[in-house]
Amino acid sequence: MTRRVAAIVALGVFLSISSGCWNRREIETLGFVVAAGVDTSLGATHWDSPGVAGELERRMQFTAQIMKPSAIVAGERSQTLERPFWVASATGRTFLECIRSLAEASPRILYWPHNRWLLLGEEYAKGGVARVLDFWERDQGTRRRAVVGVVKDGRAWDLLQTEFELERTPSEAGRGVMLNASHRLSTIASATINDFVVALASEGIDPIALGVEIIPYTLPYEITGDVAREEVKATARLSGAAVFRSDKLVGWLDGREARGYNWVVGKVKSAIIVVDAPERSIELDPLASFIGLEVIRSKGAFKPRITDDGSNIGIVVKISAEASIADVQPYVDSYNDSDLWVFLERQLEEAIKGEAMAAIRKAQELRADIFGFGREVYRTNPRVWKQVKDQWYEIFAGMEPEIEVSAKIVRSGLKVRSVRLEEMGGAGEGR
Length: 431
Prior knowledge:
Helix content: 25-40%
Radius of gyration: 25 Å
Structural class: alpha/beta
Oligomer: single chain
Number of domains: 2
Largest sheet: 9 strands, mixed
Distance between the termini: 54 Å
Mean pLDDT: 79
């Protein structure tokens, strides 16, 4: 965490606790929670449906990652290897019971306004997360803009123990990784607690959450000499998206499918897409057969197509994108070869359409309407929705969506001819 971020946090805390005297809390008495995790307690019996005997005995494990301001400040002034955070855990039947148990072992009062993450272990997410979210909705001290993430094939406890290189706190590192993956690649789909709860409370849409994986990390060589290095045993990687049906985890989207989801709902901010080069260029060098395109602008929207009697419901998805030529391996001249631009636009359209369709097919397979197609049917024709909502998942699974994509190459970067073409003295230029 940088000095600037630490200063902003300190200022926010000061303002939040100095607005009145009735609930005044000294900074020294607060434990600043920056990430929280929930798992099924080890050894606890998992239930499959409400009403099963033993449901009330299901226990959760709550884990809080709490900042150590003294370690952060010390770390900025020296090469200390002290962890700048403390991880504490407690078990209970409810979220509130866990927090109260944790308070008995914590020397400080848990302070929630700076929490950035609500992480769910995969096993817990499969059993339903409504109970945890209920607390976050009711408690005025929690932060509803925290990102919901699910640990794929793992537990939130283990993820919250993970350290990162380059950043002092895991929450700050995770935020940086998420921004890169979201804003530059669009290969993840994320939701805040508020987004998740709104989807749960709405008809015709299922929630989605960020997927996270724990990656063991080992050096391929041994460091010798006087060089001091932090020992990082594992790191984390953002992994597509977690798909929910109602409040239960039912499956996953990989990176390509997550970007397909973003194309459909209009959330692609930027993307790197590699397409095939023209055949004439491949003939000159079969190994240099790809061109990299950078999407710099895009829009996505959809609307239902409903027959008068409501017997047939379809979805029309329209996506538009503008891109620049970012990486050229083959022998091409993007300035003199006008057909190249048309060729690349068609390639880009097919790539986008393929990713969008892959996301829809995966959601249909999981019977989870994460796009909100049903919600649009409800908004467009409430009468028809009333007729079909009880069978919506079956209708959604059998739907054949129409995807229309319009792509345009708007520039070629700082060069119009590839370096390899210049080496040939212009050979292969044009047709």
